[in-house]
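Q: I'm building a small set of examples for a reading group on sequence design. Run inverse folding on the following structure and report the sequence directly after it, with nothing in between.
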């Protein structure tokens, strides 16, 4: 018996297809395979039997020959789910974020971001596609102030924020949904209410001088828990005890509930169920429709294609291809993600 747990997380579509061919050949040799994935297309393509688990219990079985994505999604979430991102064409506005010849090196002086340049406009979602580990993490960390740039410039509405501290970047009007929600987005032992003000706890009405105003913090929490559908027993529950989807909703609520002009979202739906994915996609599109510039970084090609107005592909730290909305396919992006078209 072979157990595959999310084996395609860092594979291109072409590499995933190669893996599926190997899996089918193993089955033909008499091997048994348990294939765990949240990607509906993959399970329909690979499985002979599909079992759906929700909240630790088996809630149904399906035959891949007759089942479809919507049926599986409904079983996974317990309600009907719209798997199509609904967004209308929006003419981009002025440039909000401008990255010019950015170079970022890691602790071993190896170049991870190699002379990258792009603009993100108001009312536009720019998607960055690429296999994990090709410089996307370092790019986002440099833009949000979590890492230093070796050279190049980062301009936010014309203001140079290159190597600025995170608080200055945030106060300029940006929001950040980090790649690792538990390491970089939340303080897990803290209650939900306090995590919802991590970006603004030192400002009125949440503080007077050095004294936190807990009545205002709790009032804010109750409103955001309701508005963003955060499933928690209480605002005083530690955020570390919530499910991954609800932890992500805490970050989304905190970052999108304040006035922002730039949203940097890195793998915003990583490890989430299709219901949470649907919700977060709607919120990102809503922010774009309000005129916010959005930089979306994700290894999930269907997510990048569905959400983005324009797509850049990163490979070995450099942008190697550009696609307009409607032109991109998973196969087309996959070729550039492995450097195959260079």
């Amino acid at each position: 018996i072979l157990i595959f747990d999310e084996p395609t997380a860092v594979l291109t579509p072409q590499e995933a297809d190669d893996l599926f061919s190997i899996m089918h050949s193993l089955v033909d040799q008499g091997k048994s395979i348990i294939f765990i994935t949240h990607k509906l297309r993959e399970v329909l393509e690979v499985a002979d039997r599909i079992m759906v688990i929700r909240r630790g219990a088996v809630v149904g079985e399906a035959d891949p020959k007759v089942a479809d994505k919507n049926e599986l999604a409904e079983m996974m979430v317990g309600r009907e789910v719209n798997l199509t991102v609904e967004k209308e064409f929006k003419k981009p506005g002025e440039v909000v974020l401008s990255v010019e010849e950015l170079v970022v090196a890691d602790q071993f002086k190896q170049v991870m971001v190699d002379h990258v340049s792009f603009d993100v406009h108001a009312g536009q979602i720019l998607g960055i596609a690429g296999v994990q580990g090709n410089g996307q993490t370092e790019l986002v960390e440099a833009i949000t102030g979590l890492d230093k740039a070796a050279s190049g410039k980062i301009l936010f509405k014309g203001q140079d924020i290159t190597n600025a501290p995170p608080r200055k970047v945030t106060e300029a009007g940006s929001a950040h949904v980090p790649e690792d929600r538990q390491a970089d987005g939340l303080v897990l032992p803290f209650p939900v209410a306090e995590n919802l003000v991590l970006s603004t706890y030192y400002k009125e009405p949440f503080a007077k001088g050095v004294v936190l105003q807990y009545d205002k913090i709790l009032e804010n929490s109750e409103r955001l828990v309701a508005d963003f559908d955060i499933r928690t027993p209480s605002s005083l529950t530690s955020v570390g005890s919530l499910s991954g989807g609800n932890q992500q909703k805490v970050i989304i609520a905190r970052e999108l509930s304040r006035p922002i002009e730039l949203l940097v979202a890195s793998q915003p739906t990583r490890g989430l169920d299709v219901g949470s994915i649907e919700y977060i996609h709607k919120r990102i599109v809503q922010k774009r429709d309000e005129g916010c510039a959005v930089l979306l970084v994700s290894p999930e090609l269907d997510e990048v294609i569905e959400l983005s107005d324009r797509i850049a592909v990163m490979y070995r730290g450099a942008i190697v291809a550009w696609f307009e909305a409607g032109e991109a396919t998973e196969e087309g992006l996959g070729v550039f993600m492995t450097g195959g078209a260079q």
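Residues 13-28 form the longest helix (16 residues).
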